[in-house]
Each structure stands twice: as structure tokens, then as C-alpha cells.
Design a protein that fits this description.
Layout (H helix, E strand, L loop, with lengths): L5 E2 H8 L3 H9 L4 E4 L4 E2 L9 E2 L4 E4 L7 E2 L6 H7 L1 E7 L29 H14 L7 H12 L5 H6 L1
Antiparallel strand pairs: 1-7, 2-7, 3-6, 4-5, 5-7
Helix pairs in contact: 4-5
């Protein structure tokens, strides 16, 4: 049954799709799977610079990326230190109905009464990573706190960020 899955490059060549069109289709629900399995991806234009369609790879830089959720088995410390290179395979819209589609990974962590507090090292690493990406355009506090919350999976704490 794996014969129907395609690399992003193959599907785009077959359909004459651009990278923008592929991202649009993925955002609208085109079935995909990640290699290694279990990663959740919230597709959108923010992933444009991180998706290599020809190689069928998605680069998650050190510090993480908004909308990317690792499987429960992944170590968050490795993600923040090294980043991840995910393989992506897609299922063409006209694939046979009996093709096995993996269950979608949870994009948001399950709600818990007390969210975990990120370590000081993780908060600092995330902060420094954002600042290296935007050296000439420092973000405002509201955006920075929201971005760090997305990347860390929990609020970093306003005072902790201000101290950095």
C-alpha cells in the first residue's frame, strides 16, 4: 500500500504544482506523513522557507518552529539544541480509497491543569534563537511572548523574558 505515497517533489512534478500550491493543499487537508512518524505539522505560509520540496524535507531549526509538535517520545532538549530534519510524504488527492492513512498527530498538547514550566536554559535558548533570526527587526514584547509560548509549549514568563 505504500506505492501511492509520494515525495513532495514527485507530487509537484506530476501535478505541476508550485511550492505555494503544495502548502495550500497541505493546509486544506492533503494527507501527509512524517519520517520519523508521529510529528504534527500545522501547515501554512510560515513554513515556506523551511520546506525543501525537491528533497521532500522540512527543516525544524534549533529552538523549534511554530506549528510543529514533536511526538511524545521525542526529547524536547534535543529539538532545542539540534533541530530536526523531517521527511514528508503526501498522498495524492486521487489515491485509492483503501490506502492506509496515518492518524493525524495532535497539533496542540493535551490541556492539563498545571502547564509545565520551561527551564531557564530552554527559555534563554529560545529567546536567543529568535533574536538571531531577527537581528535587525527586534519583535515587540507581545509577539515575542506569544512566539516563545508556541515554541516552548508553555508560557515562558514575562519577567523571565524581560530579564534576558
Amino acid at each position: 500500500m505504500n506505492a501511492t505515497w509520494r515525495t513532495t517533489g514527485t507530487l509537484c512534478r506530476e501535478r505541476d504544482w508550485s511550492q505555494q500550491h503544495l502548502l495550500y493543499e497541505l493546509e486544506k487537508g492533503l494527507p501527509y506523513r512524517t519520517i520519523p512518524p508521529g510529528w504534527g505539522v500545522r501547515w501554512g505560509s510560515h513554513l515556506w522557507p523551511f520546506l525543501d520540496v525537491g528533497a521532500s524535507k522540512l527543516l525544524v531549526p534549533p529552538g523549534g518552529l511554530r506549528g510543529i509538535v514533536p511526538p511524545p517520545s521525542a526529547k524536547h532538549s534535543d529539538l532545542f539544541t539540534w533541530g530536526v530534519l523531517l521527511g514528508i510524504e503526501v498522498l495524492p488527492p486521487d489515491a485509492p480509497a483503501d490506502t492506509e492513512v496515518p492518524a493525524p498527530a495532535a497539533i496542540a498538547p493535551a490541556a492539563s491543569p498545571t502547564p509545565r514550566r520551561p527551564s531557564d536554559d530552554a527559555v534563554e535558548h529560545c529567546f536567543r534563537n529568535i533574536m538571531t533570526v531577527r537581528p535587525d527587526d527586534p519583535p515587540d514584547e507581545k509577539w515575542l511572548l506569544a512566539e516563545m509560548k508556541d515554541r516552548l509549549g508553555a508560557p515562558p514568563g514575562r519577567q523571565r523574558v524581560r530579564n534576558l
